[in-house]
Amino acid sequence: MHAAISAVDDTDRALVHALQLAPRASWERLGPVLGARPDTLARRWERMTGAGEAWISGLGLRTGNQSPCMAWVEVTCAAGTAPAVGAALVGDPHTLGVQHTTGARDLLAFVAVPNLHTLYRYLSFRVQRIPGVGATRSSMVTAVHSAPDRWRLDQLSPLQIDQLTGRTRRSTSSAALAGPAPSNMTEEDRPLVLALASDARRSVASLARETGMSESTVRRRLGRLEAGQGLRYSCAMASGVSGWPVSATLWAEVPEHEVADCAAAAIGLRETRTCMSVSGPWNFMISARLRTIAELAHYTSDLSRRLPAMRVTDSAVALHVRKSEAQELDQEGRRVRTVLPDIWTEPTRAA
User: Which of 238, 234, 243 lies closest to 153, judged by CA?
Assistant: First the structure.
């Protein structure tokens, strides 16, 4: 049972920020950077994770060397059925995010599957057959310019950030941003990846016991997947205690030849959490974390000033984020449970 009053303070937020930068770093490594004893950091993390106020998840959704087929799905529901429809979608492994929103749709879901045919089956034989669903509209993700795991809190100093990342500020503007070529994810890797979905700080020994692999095999596979970005870690904090409680989504039109420049400018804004090119009525989609609802107007205005070629066509505020990156959340944004993101399962089994 979650406590009614949270004990989270700025030191806890600094710890989460540090783990966003170095998710599997030891407490001994984090201690000098944060000015705290390793055992103190471990106790703080155990308290937050136990209360659902913070967590680190692992996601690896590739199929071989192919990225997953991803889509944003807008769902319109019959009156009074949106909570039940949302609950049904939250339980599906293929739907990684679900939120009740303002605007023309009742629900906005983020779906990931191995290929287009699986997406067709999931939408046609699962989503559209949930009682209460009136209509759906899908927008395929054609490019991910910034993913949720790159969004950071703002508790650490530039020096602390450099200590954890092992790089200078100048290196972020160099070709180093491109990173290594994506690595393949084999079927044999999937049990390891799924074992990290609820807790990406699990020890190698624990992962070896669960997957039946040797510890050396686990280390080798983790190293390969991490180096090739086939496995991404995401450290998150409950929105109600993070200082950034409001989630908003914007849709926009951008000239195709200016998409890259617009994406770079949008990512440069502190509030931007994700930025994607999509198919459908509009070709650009941005999600943001805000401190207050009133900041949405300022954020949209800032985007328009920086991106004169972009025309914002629609926006929505999340009334309740029920699921994010495979984690089911309560109304305060605290984690309730992990829904195993086994996107390779047959979609009709969820029916």
Answer: 243
